[in-house]
Amino acid sequence: MILLCQMVHFILFASVSGGCVTRLFKDSYFQGGNIATVFTPSAKYCQVVCTHHPRCLLFTFMAESSAEDPTQWFTCVLKDSVTEILPRVNMTGAISGYSFKQCPHQLSACHRDVYMDLDMKGMNYNGSIAKNVRECQERCTNDIHCHFFTYAAKDFPSVEHRNICLLKYTQTGTPTKITKLRYVASGFSLKSCALSNLACIRDIFPSTVFADNNIDSVLAPDAFVCQRICTHHPSCLFFTFFSQEWPKESQRNLCLLKTSESGLPSTRIKKSKALSGFSLQTCRHSIPVFCHSSFYHDTDFLGEELDIVDVKGHEACQKMCTDVIRCQFFTYSPPQESCHEKKGKCYLKLSSNGSPTKILHGRGGISGYTLRLCKMDNECTTKIKPRIVGGTASVQGEWPWQVTLHVISPIQRHLCGGSIIGNQWILTAAHCFYGIESPKILRVYSGIVNQSEIKEGSSFFGVQEIIIHDQYEMAESGYDIALLKLETTINYTDSQRPICLPSKGDRNVIYTDCWVTGWGYRKLRDKIQNTLQKAKIPLVSNEECQTRYRGHKITNKMICAGYKEGGKDACKVRGCSPPSERLQIRMFDTF
Length: 591
Prior knowledge:
mainly beta, Hepatocyte Growth Factor, 6-stranded antiparallel β-sheet, 6-stranded antiparallel β-barrel, 31 strands, 36% strand
């Protein structure tokens, strides 16, 4: 009996089925279930790696001095369990915890920490002098290949290595080894924090094959999923996808992940039924986790079966997959017409890499992916949906923060555009409310691409309050911003969600272009457009803007954008007052 009581104190069973668990268990080790071992500088980063691994549910991190053998220090052991339960035993120096797959607000791969006196080993491919560790981290963030770095401080014993910033990479994106070393600091690239200044190419190019080295290959139902997989692969810079119409049957739905020394494709080959594109890792928006809400009809995903459940419809099947933590994707088999139950079979599945092992067409199934990792998108986003080159007008979900503000008196019409910045707040322009005496005559419509979608019975948000900047006088004098407080809160979906406001870290970033969206005029004295318009326009320095707007004072509260020779600008998209005949650069207030 005494022995049994002692056993209870040091053997516990850990289950991941109870939802989000953020607690870390010190001096604890999960027994069994090992699927991979990597090196990480902390338990916190080990948890990040576990969260983004397709199979990892639990982990154990071996901290410094956790074992007599220093080569075991800083190992991160990723674990899985068919039963979702593993025994936890006492072990000095070990730290154990759970994946954040169940935690909607903890899914970001962004990791800003810098680790003093740690040398993270990898392939050193670039060494140069840096003023400090932050400059070294910024250099890594803006280098296409860099995964992590080590910086030698001014007190480093070797004089020739002082203030040297070493950029490093590995095939896995994690160090091959971590050792203690005084007067150095190590950290990771901040690309996953949306802080890279590298070019971002979102477009997907049809009838194009990138002829570069393949570093990996997976199966995907379309080019957008292939692009998302490439984005989250540590070494993938661009990809080629063979569609289901590709001539060679064995290569259909194949997603080829690629890289090159220059970071760009060396050769582009024109081939029908192939599509190619780039990783979105360098884009200045919140890097999305692997989330795809689409359904793929007449498509079966093959993989290891977890369970078969009777459900009503493919949406219920997707929800079932989302609720089962080990499920990665599913196939729903609709019921036969003669079946009275009206329930079909929901096949919950997984694989070693999170992608189907085979994709079959023409068998009547409806397939898709878990939405568990989509829950992160309840937060703000500046995500811009990738598009196939050749598209012109905006599409559903491309600008989910965009709203159309209508006035209903004397007749209902589009008044201005605006942006969702919170679940009860819209940011718009102050000049829109000239002559508007009450918020009661305003309506806000979200998730709208075409004005013709708005009917008499369309749902809308009433406006409770209009808050105009207290220093606003006229549009040209600045402070042309206003807030609308809605009467009810917005339920975030794929088509309506907030945009991220600029962070403190964005203050020193130099941008070259911006996107402007709205239902404005496509030419002066034209009519309002039915379909949401978009225009990419170059930013202009305030100094140059001032020389062109000598009659106005350009302040640091404004930004200027437009083409010197005329053309696309925010007036024509948004519907502001006509610019001068000579000047095609427009002033805008900063938010």
